[in-house]
Amino acid sequence: MHRAACKILAGVLILLAGPARAADGPIYDVFAKALAPFASALFGGADGQPASFVAECTVTTATGRLAPAVGTRFRLAIQSPDRLRLDVVTNGNLLTACRNGTALWATPAVPMRGLADAAGLDTSKTAPDEVSLPLVPLALNAQMLAFLPIVFDVKDLGVEGDPPRRALEFGLLPEVRDAIKAQPFSAKAWIDPDYRPSRVVIAGDDYSLELQVAKLDFAGQLAPTAWEPPEGTDALRLPASALNDLFEKMLATKQPASTPSPP
Fold first, then answer.
1. 222: domain range?
2. Which among 122, 120, 84, 78 has a CA at the least distance from the CA of 100?
């Protein structure tokens, strides 16, 4: 009886709310509003802007070198400056890799060392990098972030799906990509009315990856413990420059058993 009443109440609220609407406005305005909190977490925004985000995603389709990632569920956390953590649950085991500035740690040490070896990484090199290369090769302050959308070529794909979402396609302008020596890529995103992406597709020369975003939270600074291995844990230590190769191997493991615990 209680469940029936809840369903009826939910239906009434939907009718009162009216039809769902996609994100409104010119496409560059929609893109700018969707991009702003991510940019703030990556580069460090102005006062009152997010300093971090945590996203829970599922890889729904993948091709090329990332084809084995299909079905993988993971949690990604990013915080300015230069902190990134990926948690993946595979066969009941939690695999974690975390960049903290110039250093990278990964747990549990034994399986993560196996992934590092498979990625061709030299696991005898445990010292942090001498120079901290930023997660994104751009140096932007809070004032410059407002102009970040103009370095992208953005196309309006209209409104798609049920509920309706604003779909857009974007990529770096060729001259910007060449200037920062970034790998070519294209991306599509489906933006909810609150300007948060619910689905993202990223494609490069030899891969494509489609992500379904189950949860996305923006916040201030995360707890310092999020960026360090648990006390007493045996962690594999690597320079931060090993990040991309190790993460790719983590996403290419077998399908997970459950969603990872929060960082």
1. 23-251
2. 84
